[in-house]
Amino acid sequence: MSLARRIIPCLDTDGARVVKGVQFVGLRDAGDPAELAARYNREGADELIVLDIAAARDQRPTFLETIRRVAKQLAIPLTAGGGIREFEDGRAVVEAGADKVTVNTAAVERPQLLTELAAAFGSQAVVLAVDAKRVDNRWEVFVCGGRQATGREAVAWAQEGVARGVGEILLTSIDRDGTRAGFDCELTAAVARAVSVPVIASGGANRPEDFLAVFTTGEADAALAASIFHDHRQPIAALKQFLAARGVPVRLSR
After folding, report:
1. Rounded distance, CA 103 to CA 1, Å?
2. Could you tell me the CATH superfamily of domain 6-245?
3. Using one digit for the tens of pLDDT, what is the confidence trace for 51-87?
């Protein structure tokens, strides 16, 4: 039996409010995180991710109060991250109510952090966020909200993360983020085939067909989107019905 594919709304925050942009810039206000979390919990989302996308760039703490407010609204798993630089930052996120912690910039700077988090909380609770952009003939990892190149190749970095204990990869295509051009199925498939853990595809969702493509051609285990859900352009229940009718295993609301 195939595992159900997951639909995951993402709340990118500036700390207190949900924001959305294109390719990580031009951010606009998209609402209150707790209110959106409650809505997605009702609408049949499988999980929720909340990220403080400016924390690493601005060198400010993870917004734990936002995590607490969001967690109170949910009966589904919550992944949270942003500005996690040390092990204790990750612990604080879990204690605030997150089921999983996701790390990006700090993991590139000190990969041992992934091992420490996995040892303390279990691999299932540690998600490596990989923001990748095509540079020449490869996908390069970027950090600090997509603003700083690292020189690391995305597939190899995902593999290293798994070797260090992470249980999931959150893979964002910077090229597709906010563009409504569809997921980068080539990138997603390359990572999915290279690792033994689930891969969450992110960046570019616009139509139900985009989700179908990333679950089939892209071989993703889950698909994340933001603006199409925030703006009421794609109801989650209707999306799942579309996928189920085309043979993609999903959890349908009863």
Report:
1. 31
2. Aldolase class I (3.20.20.70)
3. 887 665 555 555 888 899 999 999 999 999 988 899 9
